[in-house]
Amino acid sequence: MPNSSNSITDLGVAAIRDGVAAGQFSAVEVAEAFNANVAAAQDALNAFIVATPEKAIEAAKAVDAARSAGQALGPMAGVPIGMKDLFATEGVQTTAASHMLEGFVPQYESTVSRKLWEAGAGMLGKLNLDQFAMGSSNESSYFGNVISPWQRPGSNAQLTPGGSSGGSSAAIAARLAPAATGTDTGGSIRQPAAYTGTVGIKPTYGRCSRWGVVAYASSLDQAGSMARDVTDCAIMLEAMAGFDPKDSTSLDLAVPAWTASLSGDLRGKKVGIPREYRVDGMPAEVDAIWEQGIAWAKDAGAEVVEVSLPHTKYALAAYYIIAPAEASSNLARYDGVRYGLRDLPDGAGLQDMYAATRAAGFGDEVKRRILIGTYVLSAGFYDAYYTQAQKVRTLISQDFAKAFEQVDVLLTPTAPSAAFALGENVDDPLSMYLNDVFTVPASLAGLPAMSVPAGLDAQGLPLGLQIIGRPLDEQGVLNAGLAIEARAGFTAKPEKWW
Amino acid sequence: MSTYRIQGATGDWEVVIGLEVHAQVTSNSKLFSGSATAFGAEPNSQVSLIDAAMPGMLPVLNGECIRQAVRTGMAIDAQINKWSRFDRKNYFYADLPQGYQISQLYHPIVGEGSLTIEADEKAGIPEAKVIGVERIHVEQDAGKLMHDQHPTMSYVDLNRSGVALMEIVSRPDMNSPAEAGAYLSKLRTILRYVGSCDGNMDQGSMRADVNVSVRRPGDELGTRTETKNVNSVRFVMQAIEHEANRQVDVIEGGGKIVQETRLFDPNTGSTRSMRSKEDAHDYRYFPDPDLLPLVLEDAFLEDCRASLPELPDAKRARYEGELGLSAYNAAVLTADVDTFRWFEALLAETALAQGKQPAEVAKQAANWLISELFGALNKLGKSLDESPVSHEQAAELLALVGKGTISGSIAKQVLEIMLETGDGATVIVEREGLKQESDTGAIEAKVDEILAANGDKVEQYRGGKVALFGFFVGQTMKAMQGKANPGVINEILKSKLG
Fold it and tell me: Looking at the domain assignment, is residue A150 inside a domain?
């Protein structure tokens, strides 16, 4: 039985929930332990934009009281979590890591966060992220970079926790939270998970309601769970998912009992290896961990088959047309008229107010994507860019559909490298966008996909493997993830330096 | 063919007109939110989180608005598109919270249809004409700016923001202000019959963008201008007349018509330039990723069709055919929902009161409604639905005439008393002693008196001046104080005069 707050914060979702339910420790003790870690790490890691220790305690007290009263406890009861600051939380500032929404306090609760609170989770705080979820390194937040708890041995160079869910990945890796919400538009759950040795799953598009989630690219945005193991991700995803009549793209389907059906036995399953994912210039270590993953899949009983996804090379280009196009429209509402930042220069008219507000309220990456999106939707360019990108998107979906006639899941690296140092790619947006090369195709096709930690590179930094599944087959993805996880035996954690 | 021509200095010009009518859909809530839509509410009292475009809010389609649009399409025999889609029309304005209007550019819900305007010699429409409707699509209305609330600021009222509109786009099939006026009136009548729009132009429930161009008869189409938001039939006609003459003046003066958006000034009856094509927005239309394509099921379409009422053209034909009404009366009675409803209620009551078939009393009811009640209400400055006389009371009056209890001329007196006192016809006839005398003895006595007093005229009559018969009838009626049954007088006179 753990007897110090340090050991409690090493526990995951299932262990905390079960420990609380069994009376090994109280939910309040758990919340206090994580609150302490959050506070202690804030200056060094900057994982949270706002900490809400009182919310964590309040939820914990409710769970303890329910337990004392002999009431049934929810699937997340007593588990304090981090909430990516893209989810609107009633009464708690919600910024999307932007100056535009600094000080914005919603009068409503996102469907996903509401479901988590109803399942008994408590909120440790609002997690930092790339501004409006645009970025792969968490360097575009108005509230400063998130610093990965991981460091190269013998170096104190600050590394990226990945992005856009970089606050989430950093917090989980640094034991500031046992789990956190993420959102994934082109890889924003999977890539940060890979960079921090954590697990993250993006379910099928439409599984989790987008209601109350600040929109980046509506046709791609999908919430998911991040934690330190596959089971915890499954538990949390089950609590988050479900049909929401307030989101027209939400799937009107029951949430399967993913956790209860978890099995790492892959006998009878076929695992596909897409040959187009072997890209030039990929570090040998990434390739090696992929080969290792293939061996683990075989060991788990799966048959491994090479498959082809011929349009993969167009995915990134299509993504960087579709996502900015939608973003340019989704972000038009931040105009200084009704809420958020208003910059009204002396004597300014409406147009001046728009210009000043948006110039001051958006960061460079956000502006870049708004400009790209505006351009590709413009008269005369629409067909050449947007229409063409949609065609590519269809082809990519068809590629996957064909591959899934042969195999049950696909296994790929999550990212082409381990975490890079902050500042390394900031001035080179294209090289930054390449981080998403393996994650974007599944996003375009709306498929469930997850990243599981597979090992460390020579510098001691985590590498992740990605599993992509058929539409609605989160179970297949989770099961394959579990099989890899069991064989990878990934126990590395960042040396505490903060 | 319209013979309407603008007489220019260099010859005759033909006018070509197309109308885009925005009709507010009758529904309790907005197109994509649950907010109320009532007219005249306190500013910003009917605004949901969605209407104000708060972060993370999503549109959910209101099925009732779709039902109304489909029913409207069916009422003009239009193609109903079972697959349609919503697009975003992107532009910035303070009354447009999302920064885009959700509309349907590429795939409207209703395709080609038409309606017929009737011949109206007096108005210069020599024969009935079919006007094509290119499409009807559904879209959101914007809010309203208020410039008179503050010395330096404009205020925004979002009550209308998100209210459902149908944009009904005609073909450029009209060639005179009168045809355009007739089209708009007919469209309004149809919308009111269907119940899909209340047609209240003074409340902005219906407004028209007027496209006008001029050409030499038979030539290619000229360059058009679009005059926005004209909100009455009369103004539409004025705007066309002014704009067509202006265009002729420009062309004959050696100038060119520029494609532009113009505004109508109801105070001067003229139009002025608002913005030219060069300043036109690039709306960057693209499919709204928050909404799935709209697919209509057959059962839904059948329900829509089954719920359609008898439409104006069919009703008018039935009034002429089944009820034997004159073309004029049928047209008058079917021109508006309030009128035909009143008439049909009156007809039912009248048939009941007299124990006859509706067709047997239809002429009586129609004539009385059009020549007696309309005139009386006109004098009172009241509309039909404000009539102090109910259908039942009117039927009671008509029954007294029908049964010969009072004559038609006495009925006029009775109606006046009814309007003054609110009393029923029977009560008034009894009280005022207006009952028609059918007692042969009393009438015969008066006839004898009159024939005796007018011996010379009796001689002349018998000498062949048969026109004097009317004199004897009039004298007898006068002697009977108008209360004698004219049929009985005729019979007695005929027998006495031989």
Answer: yes
pLDDT digits (tens, 9 = 90+) for B132-146: 999 999 999 999 999
Distance of alpha carbon B190 from alpha carbon B202, whole angstroms: 18
- The answer to whether A367 is a known catalytic residue is no
* CB distance B188 to B206 below 8 Å: yes
Residue A394 lies in a domain: no
In this predicted structure, the answer to whether residue B378 has a pLDDT above a threshold of 60 is: yes
Contacts of B360 (CB under 8 A, 6+ apart): B351, B354
Cβ <8 Å between B60 and A106? no
Active site residue A164: yes
Q: Confirm if A156 and A495 have CB atoms less than 8 A apart.
A: no
Q: Does B286 touch chain A (CB under 8 A)?
A: yes
The phi-psi region of residue A481 (left if phi > 0; otherwise alpha if psi is between -120 and 50; otherwise beta) is: alpha
Per-residue pLDDT of B443-456, as tens digits, reads: 888 888 888 888 89
Where would I find the H helices in B24-82?
A: 63-75
Is there a contact between A410 and A461 (Cβ–Cβ < 8 Å)?
no
* DSSP-based three-state secondary structure for B97: coil
- Residue A188 among the catalytic residues: yes
Give the CA distances from residue A239 to residues A52, A66, A68, A77, A175, in Å, rounded to whole numbers and listed in that order. Answer: 21, 18, 23, 11, 21
B341: which 2 tokens? 């409803």
Q: Are strands A270-274 and A409-413 parallel, antiparallel or unpaired?
A: parallel
Query: Which residue of A113, A319, A333 to mutate against B (max B Cβ within 10 Å)?
Result: A333
Q: What is the ipTM of this complex?
A: 0.96
CA distance A219 to chain B (A): 5
Residue A260 lies in a domain: yes
Q: What is the CATH number of the domain that holds A61?
A: 3.90.1300.10
CATH 3.40.50.10950, domain B440-497, yes or no: no
Q: pTM score, two decimals?
A: 0.92
**CATH 1.10.10.410 in chain B, residue ranges:** 440-497
Domain count, chain A: 1
Q: Which of A88, A331, A335 sits opposite B56 (nearest CB)?
A: A88
Q: Which of A182, A105, A97, A111 is nearest to A143 (CA)?
A: A97
Give the range of the structural domain holding residue A99, as residue numbers without chain letter: 5-264+439-488
Query: A188, A209, A225, A451: which is the annotated catalytic residue?
Result: A188
- CB contact under 8 Å between A382 and B100, yes or no, is no
| Residue A141 falls inside a structural domain | yes
Residues of chain A neighbouring B87 (CB-CB closer than 8 A): none
Q: B446 in helix, strand or coil?
A: helix
CB contact under 8 A, A248 and B49: no
The SS3 call for residue B1 is coil
